[in-house]
Amino acid sequence: MKRKDFILHLIGEISSYILQGEPMRMVISLHQEEDGMHLAILDDNNHTDEEVVKIEKALNSRKRPELAGYYGAMTGHDLLGSSQLDLLGWQIKFADVGRTDSGIKIDLWLGGKKFESDRFNIPEDV
Amino acid sequence: MEKQNTVILVFLIVVMLAFIGTGLIADGPGAAVQGFLKLQIQPGRLINDFIAVAGVGGTLINAALAGAVGLIFIIILKIQLSGPTFAAIFTIMGFGFFGKTPLNIIPIIIGVGLAAKFAGKTFREYIIIALFGTALGPLVSLIVFEFGFTGILGIPVGIAGGILTGFLLPAIAVSMLHLHQGYNLYNMGLSCGFFALFVASLVRAAGHQFENIMVWYSGDSVVLFWMVPVLSVSLIIVGLIAGGKKSLKEVLEIQKLPGRLPSDFMDLVSLEGSLINSGLIGLAGFLYVYFVGGDFNGPILGGLLTIMGFGAFGTHLKNSWPIVLGVVLSTLVFGKGLSSPGPLLAALFGTTLAPIAGQFGIVTGITAGFIHLFMVLQTGAWQGGMNLYNNGFAGGLTAALIVAVIQWRNTNKKD
């Protein structure tokens, strides 16, 4: 899959999840390097602690190559039902979910072994 | 995860050894081995009940060894055993009762492996496609034994046909997922059925006519009757021993999930809850067959083993009963018998549509089951019986229709 398509599907799946909560504001930030990328999504919705833990758990689920290579193709193609964050979790390197003043910020890190995620960040005050 | 892998691996190996041991005892070692060998040269197109062909012993050995082939690939590729792989091995073993043999599934698996290499992926990424893609095993047997090749020429041609088939499956499988959005659990049934349509048309165009096959064992066998209850109770006991009281709570948690692909209940809830759920599904299926007066033969046991496997990967009692009810209603409306082969298999395998009931509710589930029955009674002939997951094919078409309608409604209705 071309990198552009892959990014589109990732953004599609994660933004589908955020939009289910009908936020008034959603910000998507993408930072790419040769070996990896950082995708950040912010919203202004209320999320319970339980939901935040659930999101983090799904996004940091153990790597499942046998599922990612096949069912991972469904990422970002969701037209019905709820989005499936574990599809994303199988394909990314690391995810972090934190609270902002008005909602949450989801950071997704993707890349190969050489990818140094600490080189990527977005300002804390965004 | 290590515990999960060990528990499933030991359980599967014990089941396979039990099948082989029971097979050797049931018919005697000589007859059982002879029966097994006979199956290797048997065309396995639908419906070809191996028990009627080779007896209980040979069939049990065949089912165990077909499952072992899948398990060996999983072990070689160092894949953790989980819901989908558990479902795949149970399904392969189940269809080892009516269509799959160790020999006719290997070329398909190799073909999928080559496709992975061609696409720049690892074989591990396509292993689920490879395992479920063995639904087209009878295509290999068809080429070798039914095309009239003289001498041993049929063997290399059959192997090449199987490899080519496997090579094309990943491309089809991914597209089919998008068609039904994960609401047909046996996606490879739809994918293989789609592919088999083209092959069947080609074969017919070349002048070959598919003979209708209906080999259906109707005799009584203590082994066949008690196999699923014993296996189901074993799963429940293993789940209870491994998880204690909390595993019962986990079974209830599983009932709340829609079951849409890919729902690995072992990951989403727990190993123990999933094993108990599989056991419950097996018992429920067994009781259904018993009460409608169905035969306990190869295809029925294949159906029961398959739904038990998917008890860890999408199917549970709550999302299944509306589908079964829909199939029952459809059977009665169209004047068929509940214990007839088609409707009975549809009631079991129709649970491929369970996620529709799980996501969209009881009425939609019943509707899906209703449509599924009259579809599945036609689709087998369309694809020449080469795709063993005929219910997955019909289920995929049904799911695609329902998903299209719901999607259209959701798109056009005002918020």
Which chains make the largest contact?
A-B, 20 and 34 residues
Structural class estimated from helices and strands of chain A: alpha+beta
Report the helical percentage of chain B: over 70%
**Distance N terminus to C terminus of chain A?**
31 Å
Estimated radius of gyration of chain B: 20 Å
Protein architecture, described:
The complex is a heterodimer of chains A (126) and B (415). By secondary structure, chain A is α+β, with helices and mostly antiparallel strands. Helix content of chain A is 30%, strand content 23%. Chain A has helices spanning 3-20, 49-59, 65-68, 85-89, and strands spanning 26-32, 36-43, 94-99, 104-111. The model of chain A has no long low-confidence stretch (mean pLDDT 84). Chain B has helices spanning 2-27, 29-40, 50-76, 83-95, 102-118, 127-132, 137-146, 154-180, 187-205, 222-243, 246-255, 265-268, 271-292, 298-309, 317-333, 341-349, 354-360, 362-382, 390-412. In chain B, helix 15 (317-333) crosses helix 17 (354-360) and helix 17 (354-360) packs antiparallel against helix 18 (362-382). The radius of gyration of chain B is 20 Å and the shape is globular. The chains are: A alpha+beta (126), B mainly alpha (415). Chain A binds chain B through residues 61-62, 64-71, 73-74, 77-81, 84, 86-87, and chain B through 1, 79, 82, 84-85, 116, 121-122, 124-129, 170, 173-174, 177-178, 181-183, 258, 260-262, 264, 267-268, 359, 403, 406-407, 410.
Summarize the structure.
Chain A has 126 residues and is an alpha+beta fold.
Question: What's the helix and strand layout?
Answer:
The complex is a heterodimer of chains A (126) and B (415).
Chain A: H1 3-20, E1 26-32, E2 36-43, H2 49-59, H3 65-68, H4 85-89, E3 94-99, E4 104-111
Antiparallel strand pairs in A: 1-2, 2-4, 3-4
Chain B: H1 2-27, H2 29-40, H3 50-76, H4 83-95, H5 102-118, H6 127-132, H7 137-146, H8 154-180, H9 187-205, H10 222-243, H11 246-255, H12 265-268, H13 271-292, H14 298-309, H15 317-333, H16 341-349, H17 354-360, H18 362-382, H19 390-412
